[in-house]
Design goal:
This protein has 320 residues and is an alpha/beta fold. It has 13 helices and 11 strands. Helix 6 links the parallel strand 6 and strand 7. The radius of gyration is 26 Å and the shape is globular. The N and C termini lie far apart (75 Å). The N terminus is likely disordered.
């Protein structure tokens, strides 16, 4: 019996050592596992359509990458989320990344859309006496401070022989600006789509001038330097999939307008208006595109909107 007990104990020890050896052998392979999470922040818009389709997940799953989505109501909030490490990727207009970089955020540009100058404009009430940009001199002009439309306004006034100080700037977020515009508390409103299209359709606002021939008005996609350095393959696929959804919109505008009207909670006539005047396409950021952002940064520094001069190459894609 004693020998039988010793035999069982010996077998148990051999089994345990074998399991331990297997665990030690498996350890390095487990440690090198490449499972990653891609945390996307987004505003309601093109990325909402990408999310609904799930095509990005299908591309990334074979690479061991899972995707999470968090919706934000504005670009600056997304950039703050990036700064505190809550997201890895987001979409934003031209201006917010400038302020984020000036505040020391570790952002890098991951991609950009083609120019979309028709998606921002100066509007006036339909019966306004303002007929030209020159007529804005001395008038109350509403817009969101530190946004892409502020840069547009500066360049539009400059192109028409006026100075930024020639108008009375009224800093209001879009919902408040719309209310002020509707009750006549401001003379003009500088705004972007879909707020622009909504004002045209529901307030019968008159378009005084859009950004065509003045500024490019691109949208941008951003990441953190740490994530971009370690996950350039993920970012490359993300921009490819965004471009694919943009090309689908370009070829299927009625269907896209219907889908986007549901996402945004707007009448289809509004989404049709701005979808039909948009241009489509997304690609990696180039030095020429960074030069456009440099111009915005320099303008904001001259206006004392940011505290220091910026070098946009410090936010260049890691593989530029």
């Amino acid at each position: 019996m004693t020998s039988s007990v010793h035999l069982k104990r010996r077998q148990a020890l051999i089994t345990a050592l074998g399991l331990a050896g297997a665990a030690l052998t498996a350890g390095p392979a487990w440690a090198q596992k490449t499972d990653r999470v891609f945390r996307i922040g987004h505003q309601k818009g093109w990325l909402s359509l990408l999310k609904a389709r799930g095509t990005l997940e299908k591309r990334l799953t074979p690479l061991g990458v899972s995707v999470t989505w968090t919706e934000f109501n504005a670009g600056p909030v997304q950039l703050e989320a990036l700064n505190v490490g809550s997201i890895d990727f987001g979409d934003v207009g031209e201006a917010p990344p400038i302020f984020a970089q000036a505040a020391g955020a570790p952002l890098v540009y991951a991609g950009a859309t083609v120019p979309r100058p028709a998606l921002e404009a100066v509007i006036v009430p339909k019966d306004s006496s303002i007929r030209s940009i020159a007529d804005l001199k001395g008038k109350r002009v509403a817009y969101n401070k530190g946004s892409n439309v502020q840069y547009f306004l500066v360049k539009l006034l400059e192109k028409n022989g006026l100075k930024y100080s020639d108008v009375q700037s009224v800093f209001l977020a879009p919902p408040d600006a719309r209310a002020a515009f509707e009750r006549g508390a401001v003379d003009a409103w500088v705004i972007w789509d879909p707020f622009l299209a909504a004002a045209q359709k529901t307030l019968d606002a008159r378009l005084l001038a859009d950004a065509t021939g003045v500024v490019n008005n691109r949208a941008y996609y951003f990441s953190s330097r740490d994530f971009a350095t370690k996950n350039s393959d993920v970012l490359r696929i993300a921009i490819q999939e965004i471009n694919t959804i943009e090309q689908w919109i370009a070829k299927n505008k009625p269907a896209a307008a219907a889908e986007l009207s549901t996402v945004l909670g707007l009448d289809k006539s509004i989404t049709e208006l701005f979808i039909n005047r948009a241009s489509y396409g997304a690609a990696p950021v180039t030095r020429d595109i960074l030069a456009e952002q440099q111009s915005i940064a320099d303008t904001f520094f001259d206006l004392k909107l940011i505290p220091k001069k910026l070098n946009l190459l410090h936010a260049a894609p890691v593989d530029l």
